[in-house]
Each structure stands twice: as C-alpha cells, then as structure tokens.
C-alpha cells in the first residue's frame, strides 16, 4: 500500500461535513492525508507550503492568489442567512462606536466582512479586540462589561444562535444575511485551493474525490445533520436547517459575490488587486 503523497486540509466544523462525510465513511476514496485545523491554521499551513490542497478562508486566496489555484465548483457559501457567522451584541450595531467588539481569530474572512459592514452599513467604528470563539470559552467574556459585542463563528455560533448555549446578548446579526441585504449577492466564506506547485494530476484526483464526496453529502444531509446534532447538542431540526441552507458549489452568482467582496476589500486597502485562477487539466 502506497503512502499518500498529498496533504489535504479540513476544517472540523459542521459546515464541512457535506464535503468530507463520504470520505470519512470510506464511501469515497481519497488518496491523501487529511489534516484538521481552524481556518486561520489551514491558511498558515497553505502559506507555509505544508499542505497541498485545502479549504481556506476566502480572504486567504485574495491575499496570496499568485500562490494558489481555485478548485472549481467547490466552496462554502450562503445566499442569505449563514447561521454560523454571527455578531452578538448588547446594543444595536449602529451604537457600537468606540466600544469593544471581540472578534474571532479563527477566520479572517469573517473579520473583514464585519469591518466592511461596520464601515458601510452600520457606519460606526468599534474597537476590535482579538479573542477566541471556541465553545469552551464563550461564557467568560460575557461577564466582562467592557465587551459590548462579539463575533462568533463555526459550531460555537450555531450553538449560541440556537440556544444550545445560553446567551445574554439582546441583538444578533447574521453576517451572511447582512451581506445579502447590503449587496443582493451570495457570500462565499471559504474556498478550496491547491498550491500552484502541487502535482496537477494528484490535485485533480483529490478534487474529483471531494466533488464526489460533496455530491454524496448533499444527498444525505439527514445523516450528517444527525451527526452534527450528536457532536454539538444543537437541536436536530436546527442542524438540518443549517446544512440545507449552505451551498457547496461555486456558480456564477457565487463568483459574483466573491468578486464583489474582493473588490470592496481592494478599495478598502485590505488586499492587493488579483485574479481568479482555477485548477485545470490543461
């Protein structure tokens, strides 16, 4: 048996279950070693060249697009509520100027999206403070009166938003929904990329396996929702609603939302101008 030569990154959040579910169950073979990590950790591994293919924050591609090739038709997107990227606040967002907002260090895409919303929609400037957003530490900052709001992502956001973990915050903002109301476009939170230096045939084989696994996952969302419920304690109906509300493709409308996000980041000076380039056999 040959040792896998490709290293492939995976985010261990519920939202990745539909892409990796069939791989995990050995229904779809994947000739690669899977490496788990939060988005920022996988971003760093890709930037360091220690992963060949990975799901990464959308901002990571924009930040270093000349290093990567996008895997076609594979992303984590929403066209309205995302339910797992949430701002929880003690007061309306428009009143958070000068107040401390705790932001997750796990996803720069979510942080940049939040910054754009404050600048362009809520038109106020809070003080962003870096912190964690893991479920185990959600309660501690809630007792700190200096923290007026917090950005929470992933399973922890879903747990807070559905009441699986109690929350003292009166105001809740779904960043996917806020982007949709602002621009009318879908939002792409994460994409899959390959190193430009990776072996093309091996990367294409990994892409094919992930697409096949994704297709299986979309046909078995009930199975994956049950797994998500058992692993997090989030009500089963909420898990089903969450997974069915996400899109795992990268269609023209999603590309429109992605390029609009990149355009606004470029105008804000957050990233340099770049291009979309895709993995292909040619």
Task: Describe the structure in your own words.
The protein is α/β, with parallel strands linked by helices. The chain folds into 2 domains: 7-77 and 187-267, D-Maltodextrin-Binding Protein, domain 2; 85-183, D-Maltodextrin-Binding Protein, domain 2 (3-Layer(aba) Sandwich), CATH 3.40.190.10. Helices cover 41% and strands 21% of the residues. Strands 2-1-3-10-4 form a 5-stranded mixed beta sheet. Helix 4 links the parallel strand 6 and strand 7 (127-131). Helix 4 crosses helix 7 (175-183) and helix 9 (221-232) packs across helix 10 (236-244). It starts with 6 loop residues before the first strand and ends in a 15-residue tail after the last helix.
**Judging by the overall fold, what is the CATH architecture of the largest domain?**
3-Layer(aba) Sandwich
Stated plainly, the CATH topology of the largest domain is called: D-Maltodextrin-Binding Protein, domain 2
**CATH homologous superfamily of the largest domain - what is it?**
Periplasmic binding protein-like II
Helix content: 40-55%
**What gap, in angstroms, lies between the N and C termini?**
30 Å
Structural class: alpha/beta
The whole-angstrom Rg is: 18 Å
Low-confidence stretches: 133-137
Task: Provide the spatial order of strands within the biggest beta sheet.
Answer: 2-1-3-10-4
Domain count: 2
Beta-strand fraction estimate = 15-25%
* General shape: globular
Mean pLDDT, to the nearest integer, reads 92
* Number of strand elements: 10
